[in-house]
Specification:
By secondary structure, this protein is α/β, with parallel strands linked by helices. The protein is built from 10 helices and 14 strands. The protein has one domain. The structure holds 2-acetamido-2-deoxy-beta-D-glucopyranose. Keywords: Glycosyltransferase, Membrane, Transferase, Transmembrane, Transmembrane helix.
């Protein structure tokens, strides 16, 4: 496998010629410009080997080998933070158990109630009434996480919301994501982060995401526009059995037109929801400035997506009048379909929300998580027992 193989100059000319002839034609296909194709997992342990693809013992199979740092106890980041109210002990118990069993360690960043944020602390120009208290509390808790990254001088941190779920095979998934992130953005063959060193935001968990060239402000771009070339960079993970059947995936893209079991690592367009995202040190600084110190343009997830969107849609524009602040040149990468998703827990439906009172007492008999095949939350017992095959949320899928 050679993400970082060193081609000879003659090969480079050959490759360049192929790209120029094939590339211009590919750009006309709205579907994708396949950047790199990789089957999942790259060197798959055969089913007979009964390797556990989760837990502390999983070491990774990626190449170059330094990518396997994503399998460490903080998933290749400096820390993993979970944002949530301390009194939601039910959510803390579940996250503590699922993360420990899958093989990573979390630290808590206390959630904030909106009403505890005084008017004076609300960013200038932000209307508290328009934002409503729940959004204000969520915004503040995420800002506290970003601030901690800066204050403690962390190279990066993954930030999770406290009701998320993921696949038992998260670590093998992250090996591919790291290869993708490096292929798209990083030029350093020995990066400090296994995900490469040029990203600000890695958006791993969202409710839906689109490719940036389909945003309305980018639709008219000509095929020789360097910005278009930047925003269509895409890393394709093929035969990824952790991707649900395509007619069951939820999100904004039309997955039915793409091959089964395909996942993309790509430049972010405008993701919705912040189930899970990583910030680099540089990314945390941009976020704390753009979403607090300077202003706040809306609910936290929209404001974060707005930063990524402004950056990608003004990429390469030199004229300050047209580029504005250029989205602080924020480099955002998304994974679609996402690796993390909101879990609908068994029990009281009103319990999903930290704000709603228990009203009608409606109960969910069975927990579920969209877009996740081997739900960690749904396989806690199997992981405790050390199983190698888990229960799939997609019954008739052969995984
Ligand atoms: C995991 O790897 C990252 C990247 O090399 C590193 O920053 C982090 O400290 C490591 N975590 C642990 C627990 O060793």
């Amino acid at each position: 496998m050679g993400v970082l193989f060193r081609p000879s100059p003659r090969m480079l000319i050959g490759i360049a010629t192929i790209f120029m002839t094939v590339g211009s034609f590919l750009l006309l296909i709205p579907q994708a410009t396949p950047f790199r194709l990789l089957p999942f997992p790259d060197r798959a342990p055969s089913p007979r080997s009964h390797e556990r693809l989760y837990g502390d013992g999983y070491r990774g199979h990626a190449s170059p080998a330094d990518i396997n740092r994503v399998a460490n106890a903080t998933l290749g980041f400096d820390r993993v933070f979970v944002v949530g109210l301390p009194e939601r002990s039910d959510k803390r118990d579940a996250i503590t158990l699922t993360s420990a069993l899958t093989g990573f360690r979390v630290e808590w960043v206390d959630g904030v109630r909106g009403e505890s944020v005084p008017d004076k602390a609300v960013p200038f120009g932000t209307s508290r009434e328009r934002l409503w208290e729940a959004n204000l509390g969520s915004w503040r808790a995420h800002m506290n996480a970003a601030r901690r990254i800066i204050q403690d001088d962390l190279a990066s941190a993954l930030i999770l919301e406290d009701d998320v779920d993921w696949d038992v095979r998260l670590k093998p998934q992250l090996e591919r994501v790291a290869q993708g992130a490096r292929a798209i953005l990083s030029s350093n063959p020995k990066p400090h982060s296994p995900y490469g060193d040029d990203w600000d935001i890695l958006w791993l968990g969202h409710c839906g995401e689109i490719f940036p060239e389909t945003l309305e402000e980018n639709r008219g771009r000509s095929s020789d526009d360097p910005a278009l070339r930047y925003m269509t960079r895409r890393f394709v993970i093929q035969d990824d059995m952790t991707v649900p059947p395509r007619d069951r995936i939820t999100g904004l893209l039309d997955f039915k037109n793409s091959p089964e079991h395909t996942r993309w690592v790509h430049i972010s367009g405008a993701p919705i929801c912040t189930f899970a995202y990583a910030l680099s040190q540089r990314g945390a600084r941009k976020v704390l400035f753009d979403l607090s110190v300077n202003h706040l343009t809306g609910p936290f997830d929209n404001a974060l997506a707005g930063l990524c969107r402004r950056a990608v849609s003004t990429h390469g524009i030199e004229d300050p009048a047209a580029a504005g602040d250029g989205g602080l040149d924020t480099k955002c990468i998304s994974v679609t379909p996402p690796l993390y998703f909101h879990h609908k827990a068994r029990g009281l439906v009103d319990g999903d929300s930290d704000i709603k009172a228990i009203n009608d007492g409606q109960v969910r008999e069975r927990g579920s998580t969209e877009n996740i095949v081997w739900s960690a939350r749904g396989n806690i017992d199997n992981m405790i027992l050390g199983a190698t095959t888990m229960e799939s949320q997609y019954d008739n899928q052969d995984v």
